[in-house]
Write a structure and sequence with these properties.
The chain has 409 residues and is of the alpha+beta class. The chain has 13 helices and 16 strands. The strands form 3 sheets. A 7-stranded antiparallel β-sheet has the order 1-2-7-3-4-5-6, with helices on one face. The longest helix has 23 residues.
């Protein structure tokens, strides 16, 4: 991501920035920056209809520069696209003010984003996206007979670079079709790795499969790289790590990251640090539960006593449509950092982020036990339940009113 222009007020944090996404991961960072109510300006294509004096109409597509007030943001993880829909906010010869339009952010094209307040989390996202040292740290190849996926695992998401599928017939006596198909499949995977994996940036290449498919392919790769004198493979042979995976589908990479032996080889990558922190929290829940809490109420109470040592948060919480909710999590992160805690912001596109989201999306490992936090929250929960039940007793028609409200009557 390239930061083209920045104009943010130091007084109230309002202002705008202009960015240029260079890689698919940059679009994910752009998605995390966008919120309902923001104003986005970029080039787009719109169908324009003109009516002549005789009443006939002609339509044509024109590339325009439009500004819209964002009402909805969507990210397509397969197509790696960010789509924004909202009302047009700027005057234009072809589009009337207030008309609805959908923008699609494109690679290598500038877009401007204006907010009422740029908080610290937004600035952190920009800093990470514009860091020139940010790159794909891990490559993953999962395969089984006839199917393979070559992926790049960045700090934010897993990008599929190639999907190889070859029909491999069963072995038959006197037929060589099986061996020829397997060789064709291995060659396609070999070329995909050579084409898509930049060994200057990638620290480790994980190769997983059920059974001995990975071993057979790695043997083929070693023989071919010597025969062809492919220097990228020869010079980086030590970066290949063989591991077990259940299939050649993309989701099998998640199983690979849960293997402690594999994580030991990836100890200096962002993904490995996050997985290690999450595993430490899970172990702490079993061994010393008074030092491991999840949920905003528990974690914020622990932070009030400056007890948080490691804070784990998913980026999904910062995309909340509620300004108040987002501000609460931003304040929690800022206070934890100010108190010296280690903060990990997990991507919801990784398995670790999805696991954390299942336990409310926020968790903390404490410096010392705080058993009284759970007791306090239990008392508060009982009070809320008592208040709710008393309201129901005073109003016997409360359930009927709820049903009528749900039906919009």
């Amino acid at each position: 991501m390239k930061l083209v222009k920045r104009n943010i007020s130091s007084k109230d944090g309002s202002g705008s920035i202009t960015l240029r996404p260079d890689t698919p991961e940059d679009l994910w960072h752009a998605y995390n920056l966008l919120q309902k109510g923001d104003c986005v300006r970029c080039t787009t294509v719109r169908k324009v209809v003109k009516e002549s004096s005789t009443g006939s109409t002609t339509s044509s597509k024109k590339r325009l520069m439009l500004t819209i007030a964002v009402k909805k943001v969507d990210f397509d993880p397969d197509a790696l696209e960010v789509r924004l829909s909202g009302k047009v906010q700027s005057e234009n010869d072809f589009v009337r003010m207030g008309a609805h339009h959908t923008l699609t952010l494109e690679l290598n094209q500038n877009f401007s984003l204006e907010k009422e307040c740029w908080d610290q989390i937004y600035l952190d996202v920009i800093g990470e996206a514009c860091n020139p040292e940010r790159q794909a740290e891990v490559a993953g190849v999962v395969l089984h007979s006839g199917l393979a996926h070559v992926c790049l695992v960045t700090g934010a998401l897993t990008i599929t670079k190639a999907r190889i599928e070859v029909n491999i017939p069963k072995k038959r006596t006197g037929s060589s079709q099986n061996a020829k198909s397997i060789k064709k499949f291995y060659e396609a995977v070999y070329q995909a790795i050579l084409r898509h994996v930049d060994f200057a940036k990638v620290k480790v290449v994980l190769m997983g499969s059920p059974g001995f498919v990975k071993d057979d392919f790695f043997k083929y790769l070693q023989e071919e790289m010597v025969r062809r004198d492919d220097r990228p493979f020869i010079e980086n042979k030590s970066k290949f790590v063989l591991c077990k995976a259940s299939s050649g589908h993309k989701h099998a990479l998640d199983e690979v990251f849960s293997d402690p032996a594999i994580m030991a080889r990836m100890n200096d990558t962002k993904v490995a640090r996050e997985v290690e922190a999450l595993n430490k929290f899970m172990r702490m829940m079993e061994v010393d539960p008074d030092r491991a809490y999840y949920g905003f109420a528990h974690v914020s109470k622990a932070q009030e006593q400056l007890a948080v040592d490691t804070l784990l948060v998913t980026d999904q919480l910062f995309r909340s449509s509620s300004v108040k909710t987002r501000k609460e999590y931003v304040t929690l992160v800022e206070e934890a950092r100010a108190a010296g805690a280690k903060v990990f912001i997990f991507s919801s596109m990784h398995l670790s982020g999805q696991q954390l989201q299942q336990v409310s999306g926020v968790a903390a490992i404490l410096r010392y036990p705080l058993p009284e936090i759970a007791e306090i929250d239990e008392e508060e929960e009982e009070e809320v339940l008592d208040d709710a039940s008393s309201d129901e007793e005073h109003d016997p028609l409360w359930r009927v009113k709820e049903d009528v409200a749900d039906m919009g009557l």
